[in-house]
Amino acid sequence: MTDHAVTAPPSGRSLASYMYDPKFRGLFFQALTLAIIIIFGWMIFDNTTENLSRSNTASGYDFLNGRAGFDIGQSLIPYSSDSTYGRAIMVGFLNTLLVAIVGIFTATVIGFIIGLGRLSRNWLIAKLCTVYVEVFRNVPVLLVIFFWYKGVLGALPQVRDSLALPFGMFLNNRGLAFPKPIWGEGAWLIPAALLIAIIASIAVARWAAARQAATGQQFGTARLVIALVIGLPLVAYFLGGMPLTFDFPEAGRFNLTGGATVAPEFVALYLALSFYTASFIAETIRAGIAGVAKGQTEAASALGLQPSMTTRLVVIPQAMRIIIPPLTSQYLNLTKNSSLGVAVGFPELVSTGGTTMNQTGQAIEVVSIWLVVYLSISIATSMFMNWFNARMALVER
Amino acid sequence: MKKTLLSATIGAAVLGLGSAASAATLDDVKAKDFVQCVVNTGLAGFAAPDASGSWTGFDVDYCRAVAAAIFNDPSKVKFTPTTAQTRFTALQSGEGDVLFRNTTWTISRDTALGFNFRTVNYYDGQGFMVPNALNVKSALELSGAAVCVQSGTTTELNLADYFKANNLDYQPVVFEKLEEVNAAYQAGRCDVYTTDQSGLYSLRLSLSNPDDHTILPEIISKEPLGPATRQGDDQWFDIVSWTHFALVQAEEFGITQANVDEMKNSENPDIRRFLGVEADTKIGTDLGLTNDWAYNIIKHVGNYGEVFERNIGKSTPLEIERGLNALWTKGGLQYAPPIR
Questions:
Q1: Beta carbons of B171 and A255 less than 8 Å apart
Q2: Alpha helical stretches, state H, chain A
Q3: The whole model's pTM is what?
Q4: A261: which of A54, B133, B274, B305 is 20 to 30 A away, CA to CA?
Q5: Is the Cβ–Cβ distance between B113 and B99 less than 8 Å?
Q6: Contact B151/A357, CB-based, under 8 Å?
Q7: Chain A neighbors of B21, CB-CB under 8 A
């Protein structure tokens, strides 16, 4: 096979010689692939325009300004049947974001606990965590959603037999009703105080870190931060003349009236996504920790660090490098799986978009909105996680 | 026609790569040798698979009537079960030839969605069902109630309009699939179930204790249910429309499944023409069918009254009165143009 390396290239190239030229061959196949993709794309485009004109349906995005005419049960922004289709889709989008954000947060917390638990030296904890992972990882997420919706939440009492909980809360199969805070005059002091407390905490933490780096002296940052974050808003609350009142839920003729309600559809979706994704995150965490060389732990104990400090200061920072990239995929999965909320009637993007599609018949337009929105959410999540990963990466000298 | 590059490109995902809606549906149907009907996923009395898996119901019989008119064989049918949300896309994309899915005829569906409606095979109206325990006598007492409704229906829109017009509050509990709405109502997730009254009768049967639920007297909307076909194929539209008219006309003539053969010997020229036994008639060939198309429909499926009674009438568990669906000669609205 080394022959061709030593033969001199002929002066006039024959057709066959092109076939044996790797550079030419590479270019040829790339051009061919590109041509096939372009032809395929053109066929899709042509066929669709043809079918669209044949089906006599209107197209374009003008329908988004039309009056929606349907109501939505749960909305983060003011919405009524007089709002536009665009706003209905926006309501769905915000609901998707809501369940994705709280789901990602909860899944990460549960995942971390379970992942560390599987590595625990306590036999019972380790086995329980293993069972958790195996159960939730091997069941389709739709079943987990139905499990929460029908199995657990469906077993709650009827609305007229609501469970009365402390602080004026009620629990029934239509959700958890709780007192709704009504902010009076001067209430702006409270969030302002909270903001000041957070900024002050960050400043204290930086100062403490700098002092520790310089002198080795530690500072009880945690206690001060808790005092600040809880204390300052409390002080503001009393200074502002206690401007906060509550609207308590009461039993009406049909439903509980007043207060605010967390609907079971949201809870079922949120819990299912959190528990399901947490099982994958737990494995990612375990893999990350197992990926840290054993010598690191041994070195830490040789230096006299306690096991908890070894985990917190030595193992986890190094494990994060391994954990964060696969964690991103899990976050994206959770966000996309939230579209299964349509199965339990949670008005997320697919649900409100689907209703819009049905009322207007604009299938292609609505599907394109879905694609663009999910793509944007996923890209934004990825970009954030890449930034986070870059920050957490080991700084090499 | 305005369209964007993006929507057209993505459209391939929706409309599929193969050829979809074809202009001459009759030719396609004859070539594939069956009629593909878009029906409900399961609404007792209208379209639902029975214990042996074969489809029965009012809408299903209409599908069989079309097959009988074309093939003289009511079994040459296939069904595409759809939810309220998927039915229109199924018809638009050519997944089915005709939509028989208790679908309300509205102007926007007739125009913007690209469908054609002409006949009303069931005059319906939207109603409410509540458990007796709530002691509700009128829909106007429903302020503050949680209402179960299927998404993507005219029901959902009428509900919003009715409560708004009467200044009542409500909390919508919305599901895509009928089965999920039923389960939610049964589980007490909502106080009220709203859909077309025919649907409420059908649903009440499936509840564990039908007598514990009342259908309120208010009818808050007009819901003329009828078959839909794609725009741009007048011949196919005519066949579907006249299948309905033939069913109604047969009842008016008193032609039934049992007596259709002896009616062929009738002296009445109207009946003779209708059944295609008059000499030199072009009553069927002009439709693209045979002249005995109406005879075949009645022979295999029966007339409108028989279809009604067999699936949803007084003798069935649904026990629905003819009401507006009686013939025009009996105080109802069912009326067929002259078949001549």
A1: yes
A2: 3-6, 15-19, 22-54, 85-118, 123-137, 141-146, 189-215, 221-239, 264-290, 294-302, 307-309, 316-337, 349-360, 363-392
A3: 0.78
A4: B133
A5: no
A6: no
A7: 51, 54-55
Which residue from A minimizes the CA distance to B159? A70
Nearest to B334 by CA among B273, B258, B244, B266: B244
Q: How far is CA B126 from the centre of its chain?
A: 15
| Amino acid letter, B159 | L
Residues of A in contact with B113 (CB under 8 A): 57, 361
Say yes or no for a CB contact (<8 Å) between B15 and A47. yes
Kindly list the residues from chain A whose CB atom is less than 8 angstroms away from the CB atom of residue B20.
Answer: 51, 54-55
Would you give per-residue pLDDT tens digits along chain B (340 residues)? 344 444 444 444 444 444 444 468 999 999 999 999 999 988 889 999 988 989 999 999 999 999 999 999 999 999 999 988 889 989 988 899 999 999 999 998 998 888 999 999 999 999 999 999 888 888 898 888 899 999 888 889 999 999 999 998 898 999 888 888 888 898 888 999 999 988 898 888 888 888 899 999 889 999 999 999 999 899 999 999 999 999 999 999 999 999 999 999 999 999 999 999 887 788 899 999 999 999 999 999 999 999 999 999 989 888 888 989 999 999 999 999 998 8
Q: Are B102 and B124 in contact (CB under 8 A)?
A: yes
Interface of B with A in 82-121 (CB under 8 A): 84-85, 88-89, 92-93, 108-109, 112-114
Cα B210 to the center of its chain, rounded Å: 24
From the list B4, B12, B157, the residue facing A70 with the nearest CB is: B157
For residues A204 and A221, is the Cβ–Cβ distance under 8 A?
yes
Which among A44, A345, A363 has CB closest to B17? Answer: A44
* C-alpha distances in Å from residue B80, one per residue of A158, B190, B267: 37, 30, 42
ipTM of the complex model: 0.73
